[in-house]
Amino acid sequence: MPGIGKLMRGILRYRTVDRVHMVEQFKKIRDNPEPTAVFFTCIDSRVLASRFTYSQVGDNFIVRNAGNLVPDACKFSYDSATTEAGALDLGCITNGIRHVVVCGHSDCKAMNALYDIRHECDEHSGSPLQLWLKKHGEPTVKKFSEMQENIELQRPLIFQAETENHNFEAIIDPENKYKIQDKLSQVNTLQQLQHVASYPFLKEKLSKNEVRLHAMWFDIYTGEVYMFSRARKVFMEINEHNYSHLLYDADSEMAIKKS
Ligand SMILES: [Zn+2]
Questions:
Q1: Would you say 28 and 5 are in contact if contact means Cβ atoms under 8 Å apart?
Q2: Which residues neighbour ligand 1 (ion) by CB within 5 Å?
Q3: Distance from Cα 221 to the centre of ligand 1, integer Å
Q4: What's the gap in Å between 76 CA and the centre of ligand 1?
Q5: Distance from the alpha carbon of residue 160 to the mean position of ligand 1, in angstroms
Q6: Domain coordinates of the chain in residue numbers?
Q7: Reduced to 3 states, what is the DSSP secondary structure of residue 32?
Q8: Closest CA to 93 of 197, 193, 202, 192
Q9: What CATH architecture does domain 33-258 belong to?
Q10: Low-confidence ranges of the chain (pLDDT < 70)
């Protein structure tokens, strides 16, 4: 395992290559910040969200945890305050950010672990990671069970998005390309949109389409990034061919809700 020196040598390189330019950027956005999104993703060391979105200083508020989970508001209290709700408050309310992205990924160790304990969510014991997954991953497990039943019935899954009346359908991995744990990861990513929408302080902005929810998924195996298309009901690769459709899909949802 590399020692702390590797990290420190990285800082030396940053000081030589990037520091001066970044300080200029800090000054530039200090009085006029215009961040694009609150971006929830996994802590996995391979998921470099700033890199694959080509983000610059000031672009995104990035929140990372094991499994890119956003606890449902019903599990939030003084005794169980979580950073995810705090980040939504700071991002969407204080800073007026209009987009919330939840980005899962393939070969997610947290999702692999959730898959292994999916039948034990009622048992409130285990390691810290297991407790985190059991407490906040339970809705994902329920939706995943529904998916397995629906596969036989060939029915799409239904998820809630911005409001209780704003549902969308999803067909998970229609080409059956991914292993079962990756399908769970995709279900989990979509489920988190409902959890974001569960916070009362966001409801007005969500109902007026002043805050929009998006799901993305990073494929560790190919390095490709997918975005969920509500029109097509599937995760679609973000590439030159699909870009216009995906953008239109996101924008037209806004136009429909506004009219
Ligand atoms: Zn992960």
A1: no
A2: 42, 44, 108, 110
A3: 13
A4: 23
A5: 23
A6: 33-258
A7: coil
A8: 202
A9: 3-Layer(aba) Sandwich (3.40)
A10: 152-154, 252-259
B/e letters for 176-211, b = 16+ CB within 10 Å, e = fewer, are: eebeebbbbbbbbbbbbbbbbbbbeebbebbbebeb
| Residue 255: per-residue pLDDT | 46
Distance of CA 66 from the midpoint of ligand 1 (Å)? 6
145 C-alpha to ligand 1 centroid (Å): 20
**Would strands 99-105 and 37-42 be described as parallel, antiparallel, or unpaired?**
parallel
Pairing of strands 212-218, 225-229: antiparallel
Q: What is the pLDDT of residue 249?
A: 87
Predicted pLDDT at 135:
95
**pLDDT > 90 fraction of the chain, expressed in percent and rounded:** 82
- 47: helix, strand or coil: coil
Question: Can you tell me the distance from the alpha carbon of 128 to that of 114, in angstroms, rounded to the nearest whole number?
Answer: 13
Token pair belonging to 32:
């006029």
Tell me how far the alpha carbon of residue 43 lies from the centroid of ligand 1, in angstroms.
6
Q: How far is the CA of 65 from the centre of ligand 1 (A)?
A: 8
Q: What distance in angstroms lies between residue 130's CA and the mean position of ligand 1's atoms?
A: 14
Query: Residue 132 Cα, ligand 1 centroid: separation in angstroms?
Result: 13
Residue 148 has a pLDDT of 87
| CB of 230 closer than 8 Å to CB of 215 | no
Average pLDDT of the chain, as a whole number? 93
Would you state the pLDDT for residue 43? 98
What's the order of all strands across the beta sheet hosting 60-65?
60-65, 37-42, 99-105, 212-218, 225-229, 234-237
CB-CB neighbours of 220 under 10 Å: 14
